[in-house]
């Protein structure tokens, strides 16, 4: 016998129908032309692998998991336009699977020319916490439609996956006189404005060798995990790739690091890697 239809099933069905109708109505139509944003930083088949580890004075460096980010030239058009299909996945490893198992997957379908997202897919599995969402972005209407809400959004809004790749396309000339850049992104049915600070250049040692980097600090919400507004520092290669090499997040006790350990199919030569 078929299973019983639950309230959650009905909500998902209604969301799918609503999103399909909206997508059909505006497919290929734009009230205003989309921006043309240059991208010399990444291209098709780029694949990055990161080691995620926890560090504290009590434990030292402990490998917690692995994360990958890949870029594909999607065969599926959205709104009649070519898109990148960007997928980020994270999973815990070893002993961490016993007390806090993580299996996360995030996807973003990003306009190749405007570098704005049309669809954000979230599948979060962290311990007992589960979160699934699909967000459609209707940029003509400045509207985001998730499984649970319809929200007005600013022009050229990003999701947090597309935001990372958009930031890679920026040059230092794009930052203001106070060495900062403001970026709007949509997450959990809310619009956030993050101020990204430029901290200068730095040479860092990694498992890939010594790398010349640009250093940034994005503003985050404070709370139970982060004790200040700028707890995260990001090092990206000081070359045309602007490749994220190291991310360090200061938490209440210790820090969490994500370090690049493998890369494939970069768009440009890795000139920031020093011999």
Quick overview:
By secondary structure, the protein is mainly beta.
Folded structure, characterized:
This protein is mainly beta. 12% of the residues lie in helices and 47% in strands. The chain is built from 3 helices and 15 strands. The chain has helices at 7-26, 96-99, 160-168; strands at residues 47-56, 60-73, 83-92, 103-111, 117-126, 129-138, 143-145, 150-152, 180-187, 190-206, 209-218, 232-237, 244-250, 255-264, 273-274. It has a 15-stranded antiparallel β-sheet that branches. A hairpin with a 2-residue loop joins strand 10 (190-206) and strand 11 (209-218). It is globular, with a radius of gyration of 20 Å. It starts with 6 loop residues before the first helix and ends with a strand. The relative contact order is 0.15. Residues 24-31 and 222-227 have low confidence and may be disordered.
Number of strands: 15
How much strand? over 45%
Give the CA-CA distance, first to last residue. Answer: 66 Å
Helicity level? 10-25%
Order of helices and strands: HEEEHEEEEEHEEEEEEE
Structural class of the secondary elements?
mainly beta
- Characterize the largest beta sheet: strand count, sense, and whether it forms a barrel: 15 strands, antiparallel
User: Count of helices?
Assistant: 3
User: What is the rounded Rg?
Assistant: 20 Å
- Ranges where pLDDT stays below 50 over 5 or more residues in a row are 24-31, 222-227
Rounded mean pLDDT is 86
Shape: globular
